[in-house]
Amino acid sequence: MTIKLYNTLTRQKEEFNPIEEGTIKMYVCGPTVYNYIHVGNARPAIVFDTVRRFFEYSGYEVEYVLNFTDVDDKLIKAANELNEEVPTIADRFIKAYKEDVAKLNVKEAVHHPRVTETMDDIIQFIDQLIEKGFAYEADGDVYFRTRSFDEYGKLSHQSIDELRSGARIQVGEKKDDPIDFALWKQAKSGEISWDSPWGQGRPGWHIECSAMARKYLGETIDIHAGGQDLAFPHHENEIAQSECHNDTTFANYWMHNGYIQIDNEKMSKSLGNFILVHDLVEKHDPNIVRFFMLSVHYRNPINFSDELLAEAKNSYDRLKTAYQNLQHRKTASLNLAEDNSDWMEKIADLKKRFIQEMNDDFNTANAISVLFELAKESNIYSQQKQTSTDVIDQFTDLFEELTTVLGFSLNSVDLLDDEIEALIEERIQARKDRNFQRADEIRDDLKGRGIILEDTPQGTRWKRS
């Protein structure tokens, strides 16, 4: 089955064909590391990690690159405010980013390039653009000649004249044209800087990704991805400078995830609705946060609120309960000789439908709906008087297989600690001894800890309230 994805460049779904069979070169724009990441940063991290996981599930090797912008205006401002060096702040928040996304079960990138570690490549890239006539130096700054690229605006689908009408030359800039953009910025007094043919300075924002993508993935890559807010001007400028420099297509497919709103309002510090992932995963199960993010198609906007997160928890718990039912019933199942082909066909069909939904532009919302059908069918089977170990195993394996693709876990082995296990065993013994008062005390105690006990013909089981 063929994977189709929506290409922002063409504004339509296209059949995915990699440059090199069996391998995907994928570049995702990472964070500017001057603070902890917020939920807006978490969405592309989760979305494109899931895209990567499904490609790998489909048999591809994904060369996944996610960069860190570790020097820019925001970092310099933070360094001045905190009286620290830029590299110190960058190191701290790169570490924090990796810790936060790891909790969300985001896989480590194959390459995590940093601007400060790619400086020679960036300077060489700019120098070659100047040599080709696509860029020019002006008193220590270097600008890209936007009009030199005839296809400028093809990603955002805007004409260059429309773009020029809103462009302005800021104080201190010496551009030839208002729509030209900075490749290199002359250092101000006291700022972190590097030697270059144009004097002390640092890169502009857009050039870094072009240089890093070329260094780690080559002149043409399969997929370039990021948040919708990056399509213009960041990705538009990347296309212009890369295709002028490399004389070839920069990326064959462009993917962008939709915006996040907080309680139906745009997230911003001024509104006080700025939610940091660092804080979020301390209050909520990261599995539920990830499940929530994937419950909406990645290109659609998503509204984030405590109420919606609570609804996501309830939905997630339904899947978890079905999975736990299977684990519990497995202990009472037999290797039955009866024909289970109908159930096996149902399980195979659910897997096929999950793959079809993911093949259709990574539709995780519909893929999760298939998981709920899997839960429904597994619950029906688990409630039968006799169950086959083979069928239970197939249901369990498919739950684990598909949730691994989506990057969350239904396994709750950590929910019972030694103390609670001992209390359950004590309650069982108390009931055998007909000490029902003690048995009830233990049940109430466990309920207070968030553990609900269920007494079934197969024994005592538990679940989270």
UniProtKB/TrEMBL annotation:
Cofactor dependence: Zn(2+)
Binding-site positions, ATP: 269
Keywords from the named record: Aminoacyl-tRNA synthetase, ATP-binding, Cytoplasm, Ligase, Metal-binding, Nucleotide-binding, Phosphoprotein, Protein biosynthesis, Zinc
Source organism of the structure: Filobacillus milosensis
UniProt motif 'HIGH' region: location: 31-41
Positions bound to Zn(2+): 29, 209, 234, 238
Family: Belongs to the class-I aminoacyl-tRNA synthetase family.
Name assigned to this protein: Cysteine--tRNA ligase
Cofactor binding note of this UniProt entry: Binds 1 zinc ion per subunit.
